[in-house]
Amino acid sequence: MKNKGPFVDISLVIIFSTAATFLFSYIAYVILQNKYPAFLPLWYTWDAQHYVEIAMDWYTSSTVEERNLQIVFFPLYPLLIKIVAFFVGSYVAAGLWVSNLAFAGAA
Fold first, then answer.
1. Residue 85 within a domain
2. Does residue 67 lie within any of the structural domains?
3. For residues 56 and 48, what is the distance between their CA atoms, to the nearest angstrom?
4. Mapping DSSP to helix (H, G, I), strand (E, B) and coil, where does residue 84 land?
5. For residue 96, what are the contacts with CB-CB under 8 A and spacing of at least 6?
6. pLDDT tens for each residue of 24-57
7. Spatial distance between the Cα atoms of 102 and 97, rounded to a whole number of angstroms
């Protein structure tokens, strides 16, 4: 079989590892929580909520506590989410796109 080069190999690793992560996470949630959630809300937890809120409203929160919490998050990721959300229409989906493109770029 002809070797197609490292780009194809890396691309396959990225595609299969991302698909496996999404599939495993969804199955684990269904088993542990006994619920069948929509795909995107499954990924809107923990720090993702803060990044999406920063992408939507930047660092303008209504409470001092929330502003103090948001200050620990660097602005590049929320900025990229905001840009991609303009094209995909969803901030959570944009966060997944940015994260996976960064993963692909790092590989």
1. yes
2. yes
3. 12
4. helix
5. 40, 43
6. 988 998 888 887 878 888 888 889 999 999 999 8
7. 8
CA 10 to chain centre: 20
Q: Is the residue at 1 inside a domain?
A: no
Those residues whose C-beta lies under 8 Å from the C-beta of residue 85, and which sit 6 or more positions away, are 55, 91, 93, 94
Parent domain of 29: 6-106
Q: And the tokens for 79?
A: 């900025």
Distant-in-sequence contacts of 53-62, Cβ < 8 A, 24+ apart: 54/78, 55/79, 55/81, 55/82, 55/85, 55/91, 55/94, 55/95, 56/82, 56/91
- Give the Cα-Cα-Cα angle 9, 13, 18 (nearest 5 degrees): 155
| Distance, CA of 43 to CA of 76 (rounded, Å) | 19
Encoded amino acid at 30, one letter:
V
Q: What is the pLDDT of residue 1?
A: 52
